[in-house]
Amino acid sequence: MSALDLDKCIEVLYKGEILPESTIKQLCDKLKEILIYESNVQSIPAPVTVVGDVHGQFYDVLELFRIGGRPPDTNYLFLGDYVDRGYYSVETMSLLVCLKLRYPKRINILRGNHESRQITQVYGFYGECMRKYGSANVWKYFTELFDYLTIAAIVENKIFAVHGGLSPAIASLDQIRVLDRFREVPPEGPLADLMWSDPDPEKEGFSTSQRGAGYTFGGNVVNKFIRVNGLTHILRAHQLCMDGYQTLFNDQLSTIWSAPNYCYRCGNVASVLEINEKLERYFNTFAAAPESEREKPSYDPTKEVPDYFL
Prior knowledge:
Layout: H1 3-14, H2 21-35, E1 41-44, E2 48-51, H3 58-68, E3 76-78, H4 89-102, E4 107-109, H5 117-122, H6 125-133, H7 137-146, E5 152-155, E6 159-162, H8 173-177, H9 190-196, E7 198-199, E8 206-208, E9 215-217, H10 219-228, E10 233-236, E11 245-248, E12 253-256, E13 270-275, E14 281-286
Parallel strand pairs: 1-5, 2-3, 3-4, 6-10, 7-9, 10-12
Antiparallel strand pairs: 2-13, 5-6, 8-9, 11-12, 13-14
């Protein structure tokens, strides 16, 4: 696909319009050809701006780009959960696919726990695709693409990034590198843990998670993982933060949340994490896009799904 075609697609998407089904298929097929060569732990240079969950809040993604800079002026690492919950998962995912194809060295997109067939059938993306395209084909193209998304990244060999957290089955980055990621996210095991686990500042070690997948992990787990792998910090998303971010364990781990006023009702602010060449970290917070700059559908898809929340 030529750069000119991609530029046209990006222009259409920035206007909040959707692409034809045939174009979505072409984009997904093309991106698979790039993603298949990416490592499970993708190496990323600094500077880079790291983005947490956005959950289909397309106009807030546009606000994020206004705050942090539009690609290719800013390098981005997205930590997953692009779909479900919000009104505009199709537009959000379409834009990120186009940007990754247009600027493959400047945009990196990891897989989150919502980038799966099972979860998207429950929490909104499947229904949105059906409403906007009249069939499940676009959902099928995107969920097949999800199987190709890489699962972790490392910035300048020092800052580890993943959607959810750590796993009792993984002590080293090399153990992540050899996982078979080209599949649906399983209900358990190291791949699931990386996308579902959460830090727990109240409890050491690994414990069963109330989410029903993954684990909670304590400060001693974080400290050991950092020491064994020669890291300085761990970045992750996956949990709503009312202030847009949270730092735990003596500044060894940060949670980044990038969906302001989550589900259009939580009242939280959002953030992106800007990492400079010296690996200094700065949280840039932002509020939801003004009502005057967003379209709102006549239906409310957030009322169609169960209230699994964080």
